[in-house]
Specification:
Blueprint lengths: L1 H20 L7 H11 L1 H4 L23 H6 L2 H10 L19 H13 L3
Helix pairs in contact: 2-6, 5-6
The chain binds heme C.
The site of heme C has 23 residues, from α2, α3, α5 and α6.
Length: about 120
């Protein structure tokens, strides 16, 4: 995995640069991971697997965000809306609170990219 990451990094870096030159800012999963660790791991766990310290007291508990079936069943917009506006905005538990006040639009897109990267 490390070796793979290292070998594709130059490709990703040049693509990112190309997109920035074109005026499209690419979402950054690493920056998303930092925000996730800051705000989300208490419930969602270090790796988003639904095993944070607070998860046991939540009903329903947060799902495993790395679950491929769930990943395939939702679009990026769903992840963004739930994160920004809270679970209630998507018919889910209000215990998943809105984070739009603490996260910028860029943070939100980075978090979506991070959550997507868990699917492996
Ligand atoms: C106080 C605990 C708590 C925190 C903190 C929290 N969540 Fe959640 N989250 C939940 C719960 C509980 C659910 C499950 C809701 C349900 O299934 O009804 C959930 C569900 C989700 C889902 C899945 C929606 C789905 O389709 O099942 C996403 C994505 C998500 N949270 C993202 C985040 C992100 C990103 C953060 C940090 C910015 C965050 N959550 C912080 C409790 C939390």
């Amino acid at each position: 995995m490390r070796i793979l990451k290292r070998s594709i990094f130059p490709v990703i870096a040049s693509c990112t640069l190309a997109m920035m030159v074109n005026g499209v800012l690419a979402a950054d999963p690493d920056a998303g991971q930092q925000k996730f660790q800051q705000f989300c791991t208490t419930c969602h766990g270090e790796n988003g697997q639904g095993d944070g310290p607070a998860a046991a007291s939540l009903k329903p508990a947060p799902r495993d965000l790395s679950d491929a079936e769930w990943q395939a069943s939702v679009d990026d917009q769903h992840i963004l809306v739930v994160t920004r506006d809270g679970g209630a905005a998507a018919g889910l538990s209000p215990m998943m609170t809105p984070w739009g006040h603490s996260l910028s639009e860029e943070d939100l897109h980075n978090i979506v990219a991070y959550i997507r990267s868990l699917d492996d």
